[in-house]
Amino acid sequence: MHIFSNRQFSNGRLSRHPAALSPVRIGFGQHLCQVLLLTLFMNLSGAMSAGATTRDEQIATIKSQMNNAIFRVQEIVNQPVTHLKHTPGMNVAFYSPGWFHAGAIKPDFNTVDVRATQQLDYDGDRYVTSDLNSGVVFIGRELEFNPMTKYFYTDRSVPKKKLTEAEMLEINQLYRVIGRCEQQLNELQNPESPLTTFHRLVSTHKPAAIALVAVLVVTLVVVGKRRSQALENQ
Q1: 40: which residues sit within 8 A by CB, 6+ positions away?
Q2: Which residues contact 52 (CB under 8 A, 6 or more apart)?
Q3: 209: CB partners within 8 A, 6+ apart
Q4: What is the DSSP secondary structure assignment for residue 127, as one 8-state letter?
Q5: Is the pTM above the cut of 0.85?
Q6: Distance in angstroms between the alpha carbons of the first and the last residue of the chain
Q7: Is 101 helix (H, G, I), strand (E, B) or coil?
Q8: 3-state secondary structure of 21
């Protein structure tokens, strides 16, 4: 009687049983899948945790940028204007009560153009004054009113200086900074859900995510086929 080790006859021919190599191949495929999943998870979770650790620093930086822009707008809008003593014989236009109505519209910082809302209603009067400025007059052609800068008026007891084209363009740029900072602060102070964050990160790193998923799918298919073949040959 002949004894064959690790060999069998199939249809009268000597053949090696493939099942002996299958566990190694299947184990390698499973390990590769685990590595790919772990890599994807670590990349996404790393990005999320990095964002969490630096959130306070980001908020502080953005607030500083926004405050600097606001202070600069206030500096431009509230420039001093010429004060003259009210003397007899002056032709003076009188405004009451005060210069401005209460309240102010908050500008749309992302889109507004303050050049389009500048009002030069004082141009027709050589001198102007109000019930808040007894004994003092101002030169009408040097003044303006702008509902899109009124939000930053700090002293409403005096009229506001007529801004130049360059100054209004600078305010437009500063408004964009303020608008961007407001949006960034809202996103940081009202964080999105983990699922939304996951979707956003996948979208942001779409090529890498697609490549990993493709490799994962191919690996799973190959492992599945080899496992089926191994079961059939047992």
Answers
A1: 209, 212
A2: none
A3: 40, 202
A4: E
A5: no
A6: 24
A7: coil
A8: coil
Q: Rg of the Cα trace of the chain?
A: 37
Question: Mean pLDDT across the stretch 193-198?
Answer: 70
Element (H, E) at 168: helix 165-189
Query: What confidence tens digit (pLDDT) does each residue in 46-91 have?
Result: 555 555 558 899 999 999 999 999 999 999 999 999 999 999 999 9
Q: Which residue has the higher pLDDT, 207 or 155?
A: 155
Burial letters 213-234, b for 16+ CB under 10 A, else e: eeebeebeeebeebbeebeeee
Closest CA to 81 of 163, 165, 174, 147: 163
Determine whether 149 is exposed, middle or buried from the number of CB atoms within 10 Å of its CB (0-12, 13-18, 19+): buried
d(CA 123, CA 90): 16
Let me know: does 126 contact 139? Beta carbons within 8 Å: yes
Asked whether 160 and 144 are in contact (CB, 8 A), the reply is yes
The dihedrals phi and psi of 95, each to the nearest 5 degrees, come to -115, 135
Which secondary-structure segment (H or E) carries 142? Answer: none
Helix (H, G, I), strand (E, B) or coil at 4: coil
Lateral strand order in the sheet of 127-130 = 84-85, 136-139, 127-130, 92-95
CA-CA distances (angstroms) from residue 38 to 43, 121, 150? 9, 68, 55
